[in-house]
Amino acid sequence: MKTIAAQPFDFTFDPAHTALIVIDMQRDFIEPGGFGATLGNDVSLLSAIVPTVGRLIEAFRAAGLTIVHTRECHRPDLSDCPPAKRLRGKPSMRIGDPGTMGRILIAGEPGADIVPELGPKPGEIVLDKPGKGAFYATPLGEILAERKITHLVFAGVTTEVCVQTTMREANDRGFECLLAEDATESYFPEFKKAAIDMIRAQGAIVGWTATVDQVAAALR
Ligand code: TIU
């Protein structure tokens, strides 16, 4: 067993039953011209964490542990994109429209790909998800159960949307969840701070947080 001096208190885990979930480190959220930008966001904030996410992935690779990369995207015919999602708000382009990185948030298009610096290696799991949470309409629960995973470490974007939603889904399914706080980012710094505060408040009501250095040191 390993213990990290996490917030709000120690996080103890068996690496053999721990997986890394990297949420949506896709060009559509991190590069100009993608889904994040169509919503009116400044995407430059998100690219800053790419090297830190990379260090966390390398720590899990070196330890030979399960790594799951998720991608938020939809089928080309949009049959898995509810109109409520596609028509919400006033984006400059909608899901499925042609953008500078191909059709916005569509599986197989360049924008839906994970940024090249964090590309999955053979043997790692790549999971396409139509929702904000990674358990909804995906085989993630079955994949983790088959591998006897009980503890999850989270990274990725954005903290308060897909990362927090997935952590909450995982928490309700009985997983012990830790967010790598410097390997996640939001378009809104105040939302990232609030999400981290919410996760670890009330005695880790959603889970724990710690730095990549703390997680990597525990895995060595
Ligand atoms: N808009 C926003 O902050 N996030 C998303 O739409 N998806 C993810 O968080 N991946």
User: Can you count the helices?
Assistant: 9
State the major sheet: 6 strands, parallel
List low-pLDDT spans: none
Residues in β-strands, percent: 15-25%
Identify the strand order in the major beta sheet: 7-4-3-8-9-10
Question: Rounded to an integer, what's the Rg over CA atoms?
Answer: 17 Å
- Kindly report the average pLDDT value: 98
Give the N-to-C terminal Cα separation.
Answer: 12 Å
Secondary-structure class: alpha/beta
Query: How would you sum up the global shape?
Result: globular
Helix content: 25-40%
Give helix and strand order, one letter per element, not per position: EEEHHHHEHEEEHEHEHEH
Counted beta strands? 10
What's the structural blueprint in terms of helices and strands?
Blueprint: E1 2-4, E2 11-13, E3 18-23, H1 27-30, H2 35-38, H3 44-47, H4 50-62, E4 66-72, H5 83-86, E5 98-99, E6 102-103, E7 125-129, H6 140-146, E8 151-157, H7 159-172, E9 176-185, H8 189-204, E10 208-210, H9 212-219
Parallel strand pairs: 3-4, 3-8, 4-7, 8-9, 9-10
Antiparallel strand pairs: 1-2, 5-6
Bound molecules: tricarbonodiimidic diamide.
Tricarbonodiimidic diamide binds at residues 24, 29, 39, 72, 132, 157-158, 161-162, 187.
Please outline what is shown here.
With 220 residues, this protein is of the alpha/beta class. It has nine helices and ten strands.
Which key features would you list for this structure?
single chain; 220 residues; alpha/beta; six-stranded parallel beta sheet; two-stranded antiparallel sheet; 9 helices; 34% helix; binds tricarbonodiimidic diamide; Cysteine hydrolase; Isochorismatase-like_dom
